[in-house]
Amino acid sequence: SDSNALILTLSQGPCKNVITVIQKFQDSLFVCGTNGNEPQCWKLYSQMPNHTLEIVESYEGTGLSPYVYSQNALSLTVEGDLYSAAPLYSDGSSLQFRRKAGSRTNVWMYDKWVTEPTFISACWVRRKEEPDNEKIYVFFREKNSDSSPEADHWISRVAQVCKVDEGGSKRFLQNMWTSFLKARLVCGIPNDSLYFNRLQDVYVLHAEEWRDSRVYALFTSSW
User: Fold this and answer.
1) What are φ and ψ of residue 3, in 5° steps?
2) Which part of the chain is the Sema domain (predicted)?
3) pLDDT 10s digits, 144-166
4) Which residue did the predictor score with more confidence, 148 or 32?
5) What would the pLDDT profile of 98-107 be if each residue is shown by its tens digit?
6) CA distance 88 to 8
7) Number of domains in the chain
8) How far is CA 74 from CA 20, 34, 95, 156, in A?
9) Fewest CB atoms within 10 A around its CB: which of 25, 41, 103, 116?
10) Residue 45's CB: how many other CB atoms inside 10 A?
């Protein structure tokens, strides 16, 4: 096969390489796929004038793409940095939100900060007047530590990290988020005792003034 061409073929049976990430990244198109349970990424540059894409670099894709398409994953690019949540192991474990590539230090979460998360969405909220205070927000569900019968098995969350976070010192939180905070998301009609605790999807409507931005979310009930 030609190493400078990305060839897609149709065949019977399951596809061995399912594309899971497509992001504009550092003046190129960054594409990742499952690659037969060995995640791989490719950097594509446009060839003018016919706009065909040429593979110029390839990367090992662990932590950027899941091993199989059914595993949970997400990605986000912010000013030349690539953020992702994808399992580090083929069994789907060690799933966490990381800054995985770019000009800034690679940082990640401490595994015990979240419990069996399902990541839904991530977004960057700009603050033109305060760029050092810009945040990245992550929306997800995690397993509820309360095992009582009346408790929902899942808790919906929003977490924030600072875009300029470079991780801690060699003694404390080295290469880990130092600005990570999470809060519970609650949706319901308390007077009717109706609660919709399972976050399913998120859309962020950005505004010129960051305080005017709006987050729309879709929730379902546990039943």
Assistant:
1) -70, -15
2) 1-223
3) 988 888 788 899 999 999 999 99
4) 32
5) 999 888 999 9
6) 26
7) 1
8) 8, 14, 10, 16
9) 103
10) 14
